[in-house]
Write a structure and sequence with these properties.
Helix content: 10-25%
Order of helices and strands: HEEEEEEEEEE
Organism: Imtechella halotolerans K1
CATH class: Mainly Beta
Number of domains: 1
Number of strands: 10
Radius of gyration: 17 Å
CATH topology: Lipocalin
Protein name: Lipocalin-like domain-containing protein
Strand order of the largest sheet: 1-3-4-6-7-8-9-10
Shape: globular
C-alpha cells in the first residue's frame, strides 16, 4: 500500500511544479506532432509528419507559429502564413492566446521542455509535440 501512496504523492508534486517563464524559451524552434489525446481519452500516435511547426517567441511573450515542410537537404519549404500568439500567465498557468480574422482561441501549456511540449485546447484535446530531428541521409 505504501508504494501506491508514494506514487500518488510523486505524481501530485511533479504536476504542481508548473512551468517557469525561463522554460518558455524552449518553445523556439522546429516541432513535430507526436500524439493527440481527445477529451474522451483516445490517443493517436504520429510516427512521421510531412509538415512541422516552426515557433518563434520573443522576450515580450509574443510570437508566431508557421507550418513548414522539411526537405532532405536540410532546408524548409514555407509560405507567409503564420498564426500569431501571445502567452499570458493566469493563476500559475500559462496560456497561448491566438487570434486571427476568422477565430480566437487559447491553449493551456501543460509541459514545456527542451525536447517536448504539450498543450490542451478549450475542447479538452491534448497535443504532444517532440523536437524535430532532421532526416540525415548520408
Amino acid at each position: 500500500m505504501k508504494p501506491l501512496y508514494l506514487g500518488i504523492f510523486l505524481i501530485l508534486t511533479s504536476a504542481c511544479k508548473g512551468i517557469s517563464e525561463e522554460q518558455l524559451s524552449h518553445l523556439n524552434g522546429y516541432w513535430e506532432i507526436a500524439s493527440v489525446t481527445t477529451s474522451q481519452g483516445s490517443t493517436r500516435e504520429y510516427t512521421v509528419s510531412t509538415t512541422i511547426d516552426y515557433i518563434e517567441l520573443t522576450d515580450s511573450l509574443k510570437g508566431y507559429r508557421k507550418k513548414v515542410q522539411p526537405n532532405f537537404d536540410g532546408t524548409y519549404v514555407t509560405n507567409d502564413d503564420a498564426e500569431y500568439f501571445s502567452i499570458e500567465k493566469r493563476d500559475k498557468t500559462y496560456y497561448m492566446h491566438y487570434q486571427n480574422e476568422m477565430a480566437e482561441w487559447q491553449e493551456v501549456l501543460e509541459v514545456v521542455g527542451e525536447n517536448e511540449f504539450r498543450t490542451r485546447n478549450d475542447s479538452g484535446n491534448t497535443y504532444t509535440y517532440r523536437r524535430y530531428q532532421p532526416i540525415n541521409i548520408n
